[in-house]
Amino acid sequence: METAFETREKKPTALKGGLFLVVLACVVAGLLLAAIALRSDEGPKVADTPPAPISAAVVEVALQGDFELKESYTGLITPRRESQLGFTSGGRIASLTADVGQRVAEGERLARLDTRSLRAQLAAAEATINEVIASRDLALTTVERQRNLRDEGFVSQQIVDEATAEASAADARLAAARAQADTLRVQIDLAEIKAPYAGVVTERYVDEGVIAAPGQAIYELVEAASLEARIGVPAGAAALLEPGARYTLEVDGRSVDAILRAETGVINARQRTVTTVFDLPADAAVATGAVARLGLNREVGERGLWVPVSALSEASRGLWSVYVADPDGAGHLVRRRLVEIVHTDGPRAFVRGALEDGDLVIVDGLQRITPLQPVTPLRGSTSGALAGMPAGPNR
Q1: Are 79 and 230 in contact (CB under 8 A)?
Q2: How many Å separate Cα 229 from the centre of its chain?
């Protein structure tokens, strides 16, 4: 069963409504009194003196008909000759006399196969030569004897021809025996690896006792005294290079003078560049595999001006803003100009747009200025924003 307290409906009373109206009237009256107090018989106050100009570092820009584009191309330092040395025929390796990092002279022996079997075959071939020589001498003597008997009428010409044929066969057997011996001597000679040029051993792939297969790499030899740099450059830039001329390469943070030996003239299908080959001096003291950079300067026919990068602020639609101190009566006012960046070079940028020759471009403190603000330009600032900028005439 519901009680009378639970079923009673809550209704606003006249006393509460009256209190609400009194409070609302007091608030409105207070606001009106505050507004009247703030009003002055003299009207709103407006500043009657212009703001004091602030100082701004500027640089005077000069209009140019072109600019110099600095381009850099990279390549690798490689030895002029690099060989993997091995034996032409297989066999057991008897000795290895060089190790990784060892410098060897031209013609120095580096490895040798076991040649006992070859030397035994050579001894047999030399014995065969001696045997054939004896047979040939006998055949020649027989030919001479049969010719004498023929002249005396004791034998026929057939006998003389047979003796002559036997002597000729002996000559052929002797030539074959000598060729076989020479082949064995060549095999014995090829059983040694000799340095084809002076260089450094960079790899040793096997040890003594290994049965080497024909053509298997035993050593890797690099000609360290003659290094070259192979650098890919665009075809247009390669056409400007002069073979035999001296160019400066940057290798491991230092400059190295190199001479252009050749350029292939063929565009690489993947890299779309032409390979150029530079000879490095013997005293260059650079490591094989180091990165070499070639810097080239190219004139670009584009009208514009150089400005410090610090003077640029991003605008809309790919454009950039530059603020200039524009002469206005006895002072200068800040005006905003829109430009387009053509090329950047470290701390400066080459731009084209609404700038004119001789404009005073504000180079720093852009967060403190607004258009039409009076400024006092400071020329010849030592700010880092001016580094690398060409000096313009004082106006």
Answers
A1: no
A2: 10
User: How would residue 346 be classed by pLDDT, with cut points 50, 70 and 90?
Assistant: confident
Note the maximum CA span of the chain: 179
HSE of 372 in the Cβ direction (CA atoms, 13 Å)? 1
> Percentage of residues in the chain with pLDDT exceeding 70?
87
pLDDT confidence of residue 144: 86
CA-to-CA separations, 20 to 12, 261, 357, in angstroms, rounded: 11, 101, 73
Q: What is the DSSP letter of 301?
A: -
In whole angstroms, give the CA distance from residue 165 to residue 154: 20
DSSP state of 207: -
Neighbours of 55 (CB within 10 A): 12
Q: Reduce the DSSP state of residue 206 to 3 states and report it.
A: coil
Q: Quick: pLDDT tens for 313-342.
A: 988 888 999 999 999 888 899 999 999 999
Amino acid 41: pLDDT? 52
Q: What is the residue whose two structure tokens read 């390796």?
A: 93
How far is residue 308's CA from residue 386's CA, in Å, rounded to a whole number? 6
> Residue 87 carries which DSSP code?
-
For residue 58, which of 295, 332, 342 has the smallest C-alpha distance? 332
pTM over 0.85: no
| Count of C-beta atoms within a 10 Å radius of residue 308 | 24
d(C-alpha 53, C-alpha 372), whole Å = 11
Residue with tokens 């290079």: 241
- CA proximity to 350, closest of 378, 320, 384: 320
pLDDT at 392 over 60: no
